[in-house]
Amino acid sequence: MIKTNKKGFTLIELLVVIAIIGMLSTIVLVSLGSVRKKGRDTKRVADARELQLALEMYYDSNRAFPTALSSLTSGGYIQTLPKDPLTQADYFYAGLQVTGGTAGTCASYHLGVKLEDTLNTALLNDTDASGGTVCTGGGTEFNGTSVSCDTTAGTPSGQTGSTEQCYDIKP
From its phi and psi, is residue 143 left (phi > 0), alpha (psi between -120 and 50) or beta? Predict the structure, then answer.
C-alpha cells in the first residue's frame, strides 16, 4: 500500500480566496476615495484661510486690497499662491470697491474655493456672498451661493440637501 500525501489547495479554494481578496480591496479603495476627497477639501479651506491672512497683511501695508492675487507673491505676503489640489486651477478672487468708492481702489474682496463635498461642514460657516462691484482690474466676481463659485445662484448652504460647493470669504 502506497500512501500519497498531496498537499495543496484545490482550484475552487483558490478562486474563493481570490474573490474574497477582490471584494475586500474594492471596499478599501471606495472608502479611501471619500477620505481623499475630504482631505482635498480640508486643504482648500486651509488655502482660503492662508490667502485671507495674506490679503489682510497686504491691506495693512497698502490700505487697499490687491486687484489680483499675484500681487501677494510679489509683495512677499505669501511665498507661492496655492492652487486647487485636484485640478491645479487658481482659486476664485475678485477685488471689490465699496459703494461710492474709487473704481481703482479695492476696498474689499471676495475669495472662493470650490469644494467636492456638498455636505462639508465648512459650508455652514462661509460667507455666501452674492456679487459685488469689481474695482478696476479686480478680476471677475462670482456668486458665493452657487454650485461652482460661478455667477449662477444655487441652494444656499446650511440647508439639508444643499448642492452648494462654493466656500467663500468676504470681509
Answer: beta
